[in-house]
Specification:
By secondary structure, the chain is of the alpha+beta class. The chain has 19 helices and six strands.
Length: 643
């Protein structure tokens, strides 16, 4: 039976306080990042405080589902990092409580947060998204003089198309202006060219004042005013300065939501599934209609006229007339007309097919966007649980609290999730990947990581032990530490100097014998290295005997002996004979040529280093033996003087 224990309350309290703080931090960061996309819609529009408050309120509601996973990741990582850093997690495990048992209250809380995330996306998010986009569209229509882009025609002003080559944001000046002003039909349009100009709203926000400099005005006279005229006259005006008043209601008013409500982001899960059936049925009907039209026109086999068939039979052809035979029987002039007509028809069909293809792609894109949104509501809620099972085990492993290491790890994990999520969504939306694959790729990448970290943390693994990775890397690259022998404050047993001197002398003799029998300058045989078992027991025995002597002499108080002990290198006993101890691993590395070449060069390096180490050991042995002799002589002299 599940009972709430004090540990559950303690862990939940630790997590809850951190979650509240990290949630507001993540929400603020995401809102600031989102705000930069629409900062141009806010500046200089003269928006009132209530409109700005609505903008930030709807934006905050939209970003709540995105902030929840990141807040859960960061808060769980900090919470268990604090428990590990203060040794509270060690005390919990010492009491016989596993990591998963300590997380059970948080698992329930995170599952509830995942349900809240889905509720936000399914109920509150679509309404907030619809209201936000309606508000954004209304803000864009409020001050069109700030929305005019460079290099394309702007049609946001009624009965007017405006082209601006360059725009100075600081001064508000427009350069390279071209205006198509509609007075009625397209035949009566006025064309205005100007070197520069300025567009401003009037004080009552009901009109726009367009001031133009150094330009020309071309305008057709109305054709109905000149009845029976074969040509339509026009007037041309050259001006240095001209002011034009354009009708435009610049007051703030909410835009129509008719064009916004069809967006998949403004729909709940039930509405998406309901509309998907209609979308699929409509797409299929359009596709069948296009296919029927193509069979009747584009892909229809040409028919041979009776005249062409009679002409072909008159030329002595008994076989039925074909398009090729009919074309071959035509005179050169008619052939040229036929080719031109066929080319025009092909171009017309190609243009029609391209238009239909673009239309069908838009329809299919709309269907994929609805599917994307439906799957995304589930995967984003599921990411809350996945991020918890990444953050809590990582905190238990690294045992670092605060906002240092946890923030760095959280940002890295979220960046990986963000890259896969955005890339998958874009690929699925564009039809490059299937919708299910694109939307589930981020979950498929992070879920195994969550399982791996949870398993390692629950079994007290040293997956993030920096010393372990440092030692492995040092062994692969042939790096080693220097020997550090210090004078001990308390010495229980003094060294047996005489026995140690004799043992060092024996090590020196073994080194001389080994050096005479083995030529370390010679390169080893690769076949023996990778495919035959071998070991250098002589070097291993020398190293074992030397370490025993060093351990005994480390109890000395003599500074000279301690200095000489630090000259001894730390020897590698088998790296100069083969890369690994396992025979099958050596054979595998030898077959893979790049790895085999790397480890062969590494082994040659160890052979040369062993040669230098043996010389250093021989020299240090002689120095220590000489020093022990001096110490024995001094002791003997002192005892003789005492008698």
């Amino acid at each position: 039976m599940f009972r709430i224990k004090k540990l559950d309350i303690f862990v939940a309290k630790q997590f809850g306080l951190l979650f509240l703080g990290t949630f507001f931090i993540c929400q603020f960061v995401l809102m600031m990042q989102f705000l930069w996309r629409y900062v141009d819609e806010l500046i200089g529009k003269g928006l009132t405080l209530d409109v700005l408050a609505q903008f930030f309120w709807y934006m905050g509601l939209m970003l709540v589902p995105q902030a929840l996973p990141l807040a859960i990741l960061l808060s769980s990582l900090i919470a268990y990092g604090n428990l590990g850093e203060s040794s509270e997690l060690t005390a919990i495990k010492a009491a016989g409580i596993s990591l998963m048992q300590s997380m059970r209250s948080l698992i329930v809380a995170v599952c509830l947060l995942a349900c809240c995330s889905f509720y936000f996306q399914n109920v509150i998010g679509p309404e907030a998204n619809k209201s936000f986009r309606q508000l954004l569209l209304s803000m864009k229509q409020k001050s069109p003089e700030l929305e005019i882009p460079e290099g394309i025609f702007y049609d946001g002003i009624p009965n007017c198309n405006l082209y601006v080559q360059k725009k100075a944001v600081g001064t508000g000046m427009l350069y390279g202006i071209m205006i198509y002003k509609m007075n009625g039909s397209y035949e009566d349009a006025a064309i205005i060219l100007a070197d520069s100009g300025r567009l401003q709203s009037t004080a009552e926000k009901k009109h726009l004042l367009l001031t133009l400099y150094s330009g020309e005005w071309f305008e057709n006279m109305r054709s109905q005013d000149i009845a029976g005229s074969a040509s339509v006259p026009y007037r041309r005006e050259t001006f240095s300065t001209k002011r034009i008043v354009l009708d435009f209601d610049g007051g703030f008013s909410m835009a129509d939501v008719a064009g916004i409500s069809g967006d998949a982001r403004t729909k709940s899960m039930g509405k998406i599934f309901h509309d998907l059936d209609s979308i699929k049925e409509f797409n299929d009907s359009v596709a069948r209609s296009f296919l029927a039209d193509a069979r009747r026109t584009t892909f229809r086999m040409p028919r041979i006229s009776r005249e062409d068939s009679t002409r072909a039979m008159a030329q002595g052809r008994s076989a039925p007339a074909t398009p090729d035979t009919a074309y071959a029987s035509l005179p050169p002039e008619k052939k040229q007309r036929v080719v031109k007509a066929a080319l025009n028809r092909v171009q017309m069909y190609a243009s029609e097919l391209d238009m239909k293809s673009t239309y069908m792609e838009d329809l299919n894109r709309n269907k994929r966007m609805h599917q994307n949104e439906a799957i995304g509501k589930v995967t984003l809620a599921l990411s809350c649980i996945i991020f918890f099972f990444i953050g809590a085990p990582l905190g238990a492993i690294i045992r670092k609290g605060g906002l240092g290491v946890p923030v760095i790890i959280s940002v890295l994990v979220f960046i990986v999730y963000y890259i896969f999520e955005n890339s998958g969504t874009k690929m699925a939306r564009d039809g490059v990947w299937t919708v299910w694959f694109g939307k589930l790729i981020s979950t498929a990448v992070l879920a195994p990581l969550a399982v791996f970290f949870t398993y390692k943390a629950n079994n007290d693994s040293t997956v993030f032990n920096i010393d372990l990775y440092r030692s492995v890397l040092s062994a692969m690259l042939g790096l080693r530490r220097k020997r550090h022998v210090f004078r001990k404050e308390v010495i229980i047993n003094d060294p047996d100097y005489a026995a140690d001197a004799m043992r060092l002398a024996g090590v020196s003799r073994d080194i001389d014998t080994y050096t005479s029998e083995h030529n370390l300058h010679r390169l080893p045989n690769p076949v023996k290295v990778f495919f035959r078992q071998g070991d250098d027991r002589a070097v291993r025995d020398i190293s074992t005997e030397l370490e025993a002597v060093i351990e005994d002499l480390s109890n000395t108080k003599d500074k000279v002996v301690l200095t000489e002990l630090n000259r001894y290198p730390i020897m590698a006993t088998h790296a100069h004979t083969r890369p690994f101890k396992a025979k099958w691993l050596n054979a595998t590395v030898g077959i893979v040529l790049p790895l085999g070449l790397f480890f062969y060069i590494r082994m040659v390096r160890f052979r040369f280093r062993l040669m230098r180490d043996l010389k250093a050991i021989r020299s240090a042995n002689d120095a220590i033996i000489a020093r022990i002799g001096q110490m024995e002589a001094a002791r003997s002299g002192g005892e003789g003087g005492g008698r």
